[in-house]
Structures are given as C-alpha cells and as structure tokens.
C-alpha cells in the first residue's frame, strides 16, 4: 500500500492515466466556462479550485506521515516519484545534505497537455504537486523551479534546498 493510494484512487491505474481521466472531465468543463464567462475569469476559477484542492490534499497526506517535516516531504516526494518516474526522464545534478538538483528532460504529462492545448491545466494537475509537497515540509525544504517543459522550456529545473538539521 502506497502513501498516495487515496490520491491515486486506484493504485493499479498509472499516474498518466489518472491525469488523462481528470482531463477528460476538466477540459470540457473549462471550455464551457470559458465560453460562458470568458477565458480569464474561467481559468482563474479553475486555477483557484485546483490549487486549493492540491494544497489541502498534500497537507492531509503529510499530516498522516510520522516524523519531522523534512521526513514528511521525503516520504511524499518519494511516493510521488514512484508514481511518475516512468513518465519522465531526468538527471540528478546534485544530491547532498544541503540540496537536491534535478533536471527533468522529457515529460509525457507535458506532451499530453500540450497536445490538448491546455498546458496550464497540466501545470495545475501535475507540476504544482511538487510545490505543495515541499510546502508540507514547513520550511525545512524549499523548491525553486524556474522553468518547466509544460511551459515550453527544454527541461524542468527542480532546485530543492534543505534547512540545516
């Protein structure tokens, strides 16, 4: 049993397939909202709703992990990596007590959402999970990600910094 089973709903479904199912529902709803109230307002509503959902979800998952805030981050990030690793290619540039630097060089999630013409939705459903997982570390882990493939960059730059122990 994985830490993220409740998030995945069915652990036998891949994270990419879960994301595709979410998109099958969200994209038509987003497009209908845009047609009714305009793109800017509709996208803001969807963004706020999905950001709130993700923050609450990962805060709740982190609450159930015993140990320090950094331990909570490590457990959640490890579980998230387990369910996304077959969909991405990455290089670890640095890994020590002070920092973890990773460049994701290919991402099937980004390919999917860019093909749909909805990279912002992909960022909300997939990319922002890393931000919310880091937030669960209560300041012991910070994440700086200056670019993502989802946004059109050649790589995603994950730069984690760890507070001194």
Give the topology, please.
Blueprint (H helix, E strand, L loop, with lengths): L4 H4 L6 H23 L1 H25 L5 H16 L3 E8 L3 E9 H9 L2 H17 L5 E4 L11 E7 L3
Antiparallel strand pairs: 1-2, 2-4, 3-4
Helix pairs in contact: 2-3, 3-4, 3-6, 4-6, 5-6
Descriptive account of the structure:
Helix 2 runs antiparallel to helix 3 (39-63) and helix 5 runs antiparallel to helix 6. The protein has helices spanning 5-8, 15-37, 39-63, 69-84, 108-116, 119-135; strands at residues 88-95, 99-107, 141-144, 156-162. The protein is an alpha+beta fold. It starts with a helix and ends with a strand. The chain has a single domain, classed as Muramoyl-pentapeptide Carboxypeptidase, domain 2 (2-Layer Sandwich), CATH 3.30.1380.
Key words describing this protein structure:
165 residues, Muramoyl-pentapeptide Carboxypeptidase, domain 2
**Poorly predicted segments:** none
What's the SSE pattern?
Answer: HHHHEEHHEE
Instruction: Please estimate the helix content.
Output: 55-70%
Tally of DSSP helical segments: 6
Radius of gyration: 16 Å
Please state how the strands of the largest beta sheet are arranged side by side.
Answer: 1-2-4-3
CATH class: Alpha Beta
Structural domain count: 1
CATH topology: Muramoyl-pentapeptide Carboxypeptidase, domain 2
Largest sheet: 4 strands, antiparallel
Proportion in β-strands: 15-25%
The CATH architecture assignment turns out to be 2-Layer Sandwich
How many runs of DSSP E, i.e. beta strands?
A: 4
